[in-house]
Amino acid sequence: MILLTGATGFIGGRVLRALSEKNVHVKCLVRRPVHSDNPNISYVIGDVLDYDSLVRATEGVDTVYYFIHMMGSQPRGIQKRFDILDRLAITNMVKACRTNGVGRIIHLTGIRAQQEKLSTHLESRREVEEIIKNSGIDYTVFRASVIIGRGGAAFEILDAAVRKLPIIPVFNWENTKVQPIYIGDVIRYLVECIDKKETINKCYDIGCSQVFTYRELMQQYAKELGLKRVFLSIPGSWTRLSSVMLGKLAPVDQNVIYWLIESLHNNMVCEPNDLKIIFGFEPLSFRESIRKIVETG
After folding, report:
1. What is the pTM of this model?
2. How far is CA 296 from the centre of its chain?
């Protein structure tokens, strides 16, 4: 049996749809009751900040998909930084998994350059990954940079900036390097790795074959949309002002935008791996990814 966290989110919802096509029982961790007509999908009430509820949720579970990031999920009445909540959530989950003998945790996080000082967002993700890796439970970790897909915060910010700003200001992060990946390829890795034992206790950076600077990424996106845009270089980071402006343009929480913009100075480029040999495919190019997004609306 599989326990899926974040089942209603950008990644979790798509993983659930993919898993529903397989003959496996998926139990989804939710905060409120949900009904399903699919006999292979059930729902269990729980909260990652409530250890006892996780003990109940992980009973009889073989594999946990852990897609929890508290950056945009500040519970009402709990005024703590998201990194503190991230630490508490994964500590609770790991402890519950140990209690019930869960065999494996599959996790999606962010690419990071080892030699760089990390943003608050990426440092929190690094810490969560380390807690999983040091838990004594088998794991598979995938690290991505910008995921190209509707509903993803980074993509929605990119989309809003390029579509709605004829003149696009670019700040001191314009030459940071990034290696995007199409959402469909991310889901394929996450779902297919269940049956690939060679991925156990391994971490993989995932991305298309192309590396862009953030400026080039926006220029290429504008080109694919057939939009003429002027890019204006401005010294400094202007993180708070940018998050306020983009918060009015993009369907993304302003606080999430702030932490993502703070992360733009961190390069997110894949280290070499053997994923093509293991999975038998290469991720779509950035251009192909955009064309798929445009085709599907």
Report:
1. 0.94
2. 21
